[in-house]
Amino acid sequence: MKAFQIQGKYSGSVIDIPDLHGAAAGEVLLQVKLVGMCGTDLTTFRGGNPMVAFPRIPGHEVAATVIAGAKDLAPGTQATISPYTECRECASCKRGRPNACQFNQTMGVQRDGAMAEYISIPRARIYTANLSLEELCLVEPLTVGAHAASRGRIVSEDTVAVFGCGGIGLGAIASAAFRGTTVIAIDVSDAKLEIARKAGAQHLVNTAREDLHSRLQEITNGVGPDVMIEAIGLPSTFRAAVEEVAFTGRVVYIGYTKEPVSYETRLFVQKELDIMGSRNAMPDDFREVIRMLEAGRFPVSDAVSAIIPPEQAARTLAEWSANPGRYTKVQVRFNS
Ligand SMILES: [Zn+2]
Ligand SMILES: [Zn+2]
To answer: Nearest-CA neighbor of 166 among 136, 197, 135, 187?
Structure first.
């Protein structure tokens, strides 16, 4: 069967891999329909992902149909999947937080992914929903932001500010809005901010021309946002999250910076902040994103930049790498 493989830095092609003859024991055989590519895949293609060894079949954002192996799922049922694994032994797994499993192996990162015609997946990692294939393929990337909203214990009375309106930030904005909060979207691109507005942000701050501090103070009547979510990964925004958040507020970091960040640690104590990391997503996050998409609360067509055949994947990744602003989300269509 056909698969898309990244062989090394800036090199990828469609290859032939052995057919799957049915599902693996205890698993479900899925026919892959759409696989999303995100910043992680772009980083892999650039040779910049330390968790990836080449050659690697990418793909962790999946829309598929059930072929065989599940007693409770009729063949033809449309589904999406969770691409993570859990070891059940590490501290995170024992605490009931397998999203942060120390030995997690995400599909397409530490092991081969879903960019193939068929995949075999444990039943527990399959989610069905009343959604289109494009929407199903967006569930996993949106869960990463939904998990950040969950980590921030966001409730409807909160004002939440989100740094970054790329794929991950949009998920956080949409999930915060779905929880009924006041959401402030922060970016340097008016086009991205406009999509954030459609995802539910009431306030838009373009820091290319507006002063972040005065805008946040104005919107929050001088208090600062209750929750700051950082989804960019720059030292300046890591620091600004702590500086701008309200006293006794919560700060959630999804990305991470390439370089160490220096902080005014006095603020941690003076404001008595809760500062949290957020990694991957939990089953509840998948269910919440599915409810949000089923409610039509996300601008799906704005968030998907292109749908391409596997034969164009390498060229598209090269174009994306040369011009990062060109795409937000690319989906690769299999079995069309
Ligand atoms: Zn992704
Ligand atoms: Zn574990």
So the answer is: 187
In angstroms, rounded to a whole number, what is the distance separating the alpha carbons of residues 312 and 307?
A: 10
2-128+305-333 adopts what CATH topology?
Quinone Oxidoreductase; Chain A, domain 1 (3.90.180)
- Amino acid 147: pLDDT: 98
Q: Which residues face 250 on adjacent strands?
A: 227, 274
Two tokens, residue 186: 């922060």
Closest ligand relative to 84 C-alpha? 2
Q: Looking at the domain 143-277, which fold is it?
A: Rossmann fold (3.40.50)
Residue 222 CA to ligand 1 centre (angstroms):
36
Q: Parallel, antiparallel, or unpaired: how do β-strands 330-333 and 11-16 relate?
A: unpaired
Among all bound ligands, the one having the nearest atom to the CA of 280 is 1
Ligand nearest to the CA of 168: 1
- CA distances 89 to 85, 92, 93, 240, Å, are 12, 8, 6, 37
Domain ranges of the chain: 2-128+305-333, 143-277
Please state the separation of Cα 276 from the chain's center in Å: 17
Asked whether the predicted pLDDT for residue 23 surpasses 90, the reply is no
Q: What global pTM score does this model have?
A: 0.95
Sign of dihedral through CA atoms 135, 139, 144, 148?
positive
